[in-house]
Amino acid sequence: MAYIFLFTSVLIPSYFIRLKKTNRLIGYDYEYITIFVLIAILTLFFGLRFNVGIDYMSYYNNAEFHSWNKPQKGTGQLFEPGFRFLYWLMEIFCFPPNTIFILSGSLIYLFLFMGVARYSCSVCASLFAFFSSGLFYFSFNELRQFIAICIVFWGYQFCVEKKILKWIILILGAMLFHQSAFIVFPVYVFSKIHFKKSILNIILFSSLVLKKIGMIDFLCLILSYLPGHYSNYSEILKYMVSDSGSGIISYLYLSIIFVINNAGWRNTYFNDKYRNFFLNIFLFGAVATFVFSDIYLVVRLLEYLLIAFVIVFVDFIKFCKKSKFLYIFLCFVIVTFFCNIIKYSFFSDSGSLLKYQTVFSK
Q: Fewest C-beta in 10 Å: which of 92, 215, 299, 341?
């Protein structure tokens, strides 16, 4: 019930935040105040939890026992420099252990809202997509990576504007919090690609075929050539299975792309370089997630691309309102994604997310 209360208290105020057609805040004081309040609510909800999420106690104990600057058990790896800096700040100012979650949450939601304000035309719809797609829940279990994901999300503007130097600096900055950010660097080329309608349809239908083919052995071969500890995943990949990318949501991702690609307003959509870019990376993320849905590592890394859904979904809503048939499909999509929220809030026990409690109730 705590999650439903949070979503309600965030989505309703966000509905009244208006954006210019140039994708920037209009600038009324109450809108900036509302944005600040929403970031504060989400940060406090994220930061004041206790023992919620798979890795919670690991991060908590690193702060409590001052072991954050030592190689971690299991991996033998040090935390990335940016995350160690957060721990260092906590020790300098003698903050309690759970402060690491408040600091991490503030970075996640600051960059998330900066990206939404930069690219989206509806804060409310983007937040609904963020919650209903499961990305919000994943952030509870992927602390460092989600900081990097939101930094990259905000920095996608450098890809669209073809500012390669700023994009490189952005990737290096994201890698200060999670090394996996380096895999996103090649998406720079997506800003130059305009898929033809037929090609995009072939990609979508091909994914249905590839879904039936075992891809784990092929992926293990690729991972075996990667440097460092990443090559170790080739040995354990077969045991790292998940259903995160399977089910009706993955089919809806492909259906949304198919509708956008084949609707009459396709040319208007693709002539916008930002819309085209986010559709491209969401296409790649959705197809790869669909094909490799049972491989946890792949699904986790593809979240760098799947976060584009918070932008694509807004445009999908806007376009579906122009057709009665598509409007019915839109209603079905919204209801299904709302059911996904209910599933994660009341029935999913991934990472002890159901047992939400605060530091005050421990």
A: 92
Question: Which DSSP string do the residues of 232-280 spell out, in sequence order?
Answer: GHHHHGGG-B--TT-SHHHHHHHHHHHHHHHSTTHHHHHTSHHHHHHHH
pLDDT at 361: 61
Q: State how far the Cα of 116 lies from the Cα of 346, in Å rounded to an integer.
A: 28
- 140 vs 106: which has the higher pLDDT: 106
Question: Confidence band (pLDDT; 50, 70, 90) for 167?
Answer: very high
Please state the pTM of the whole predicted model. 0.86
**Could you give the CA distance from residue 304 to residue 193 in angstroms, rounded to a whole number?**
19
d(CA 144, CA 108): 9
Mean pLDDT of the chain: 80
The CA distance from 56 to 141, in Å, is 7
Please check whether residue 260 is in contact with residue 315, taking contact to mean a CB–CB distance below 8 angstroms.
Answer: yes
Amino acid at 101: F
Contact in structure between 104 and 84 (CB atoms under 8 Å): no
CA 125 to each of CA 58, 312, 334: distance values in angstroms, whole numbers, following the listed order: 34, 10, 10
Angle (CA) 70-74-76 rounded to 5° is 40
Contact at 8 Å (CB) between 329 and 335? no
Looking at the DSSP bridge assignments, the partners of residue 19 are 25
**HSE of 95, CA atoms in CB hemisphere, 13 A:** 17
Identify the CA nearest to 352 among candidates 121, 73, 26, 57.
Answer: 57
pLDDT at residue 327, rounded to an integer: 87
254 neighbors 291 (Cβ within 8 angstroms): no
**Cα-based distances in Å from 127 to 20, 23, 121, 176, 224:** 18, 15, 12, 26, 38
